[in-house]
Amino acid sequence: MRLHTRGDTRFHPTRKAPKPPSTKTDVESQKKQLETKKRSLCQKVDTTGVLTIFLGPPVLLLAVTFLILFWWESMKAINGGDPEVYWFRIVNADWATRLITICTTAIRTVVSFQAGLATAMVAGVVLETKGIPLLQGPLYSILRAVKAAPSSLFTATDFRPHLPPFISTLVVAEVLVTAASQFLSTIYLSDFTSSTFTQSNNSTNVSLLDTEFSTASGWWTMRPAASWTFAELSEPFKEGSNFHDTGHTYRALLPFDEEEHRTKLRRYQGPAPVMDQRVICAPPPLVNMRLDATDQDEIHISGQIPMQNLSYPLSVGQDSYGPANFTCKLPTPLSWTINTFGQSSMCIATQQRNWTVFSTEDPLVQPHGYATASVMWLVLDIVSMASVVRAGSQNVAARVAGNDGPWAIVTHGNDTKTLRVSACLINVAVETIVVGLNSSSDNPEPTISWDRTTNSYNTEAARRQLGASRTRESLASRGVLSLEPRSQWGAVLPLNDSSTGDTDLPAFFLAVDVSLPTLLMSTDNYTYSPGVLLADDGTGFYSGSAENTHVEMFQDTLNTTASPALAVQVVLARIFQMAYYEQLVKMAGTATASTGFSVSSSIPSQWTGFIIGTTLIATHVVIVTIITVQFARHTNSTIIGNYWQTVSQVVSDETRPILEQADTMDDAEVKRWAKRNLQNLKAYRAVRSQHDGRTTLDMVGSTREH
């Protein structure tokens, strides 16, 4: 076929066109067949349209399902749960953002195809129902074949598409959804932040506690290198009329030398050194006491504690030998005031190694055969330095004048309170036990910083970590891991000397006892019980005082809680950690543990962007579904994607004059020509069957015979 100029209007087909029906009966019969023939939805669209209708929704559902699962597992990971293996593979391979890109690309592709199909369907519905002005007939008919974007219904008609209100609303909504879908990737990625989660469990070699210690270090006179985090299983603080009890406080030390491993540990199943740092303090029955202030630099108090027939809380074993003798050094403050604060000391009540102290209910390690792990500490706190000085150069007798909660009030010569004493029991036994540790977040180790305003160390964060409160906060808020209940603990591994194989349970923490300053500085004139001065004015460093951070940890705890039990627990917990971690790198024995550490990666941390993006997709699906139903119900003469049909259906008696003139005109010229030469241009035309059996545009409401 050739395209001819205006001067030659003949049409030269390669084949003869079929002859029209020769009789009126044949015309009516053909018309009736066309009217009664109803096409199914699949017959009204081309192959691409069928695939778009039936394969598009599963693709959208699959892509959204992938995103839902990824978001769900990401939230689970952020909250400390255990995501599925596929999630770890995606994140570890750095495919998180790529997954979003792939899914949103698939979604945008389907949305684009479905939007184009919906545009063609809208054109078909409008052409076969309400109709359109004559001059818009070619546009709407062509849209059924080319399946353009929904915005074409507005842009190609100068934003006067003459659509029914309901259809117009659907088209506007689809235009907005289609435009917004171009930013789906950005919308979904808006939920991504750098988040921390727990990696899958891995096998790790950890060091086992052994006893290769030749000498003790000066733990009490050294500043802690860190505020090591740990795992804890504890009971509430208990208080009676004459005692303070921290309750069982099981703590597992983390067998990792590097801070990053400790702070990022989320899950652990394996051997770890565990001890019960429970402390019980009560007023001791002191007898035969003497206060010696003859040397102002070596003030000390001595006496005895009868060990037989003591009742709870100072219960002792039945195999105790005689009274506990003690000689405890006292600090010498610079200010000799009546009301003295912050002048304390601690010492072990006896140097005997063949008696049992701690036999309270359910100890972690039974005292039998491990007597040196059961220790009675005396906490001495000067109440009036002026009263101490009144002793002058004498070695005076002292006595207990009464009790004040867990304290025994000591005086001499008169009823003036001189100092208060509390006996604190603690079992420092440690055993290596297979335990499970868990945490839902990282556990940073706080630092003890210097406060220039108060001219002292700020110990609040460190004390909070160690639970220095009568009402303990949650483990997560303290930055401490959770130790599983005792019923879930596994085997106990013996504490062996890696060189000889001998079991030597108390050797490690005996190093803590023998490093006490007053034992190391004892002279021929004064033989002190192992102890340490805890004076917050910094005096007495040359005569047995602890390093300032230990002092302030003790004094701050004592001042804020008024509990000697908590103060002793805090300072001893830190000393035990110092001794353990200083020796950890030297330990030769190893074992396998299952560990899960936290890592940081860019993953979804909220649902906002996901909800917005998925809502856009759902809105699109609803719009396309409604348009498809409308198309299936209200059209019969449209077959989407058929070009010849779309051209043929706009060729009618009304459009033929325009077609004969439009071959050299643009649309504006055609519009001007039609306004001058044709009538009823604004009247609506719809595609319908004509009297000659053809389906073409015809005026809506026309009474001509069909």
From TrEMBL:
Keywords: Membrane, Transmembrane, Transmembrane helix
TM stretches of this protein: 48-72, 607-629
Biased composition (Basic and acidic residues): 1-11
Chain residue ranges for the region called Disordered: 1-30
Protein name per UniProt: Transmembrane protein
Record organism: Aspergillus violaceofuscus (strain CBS 115571)
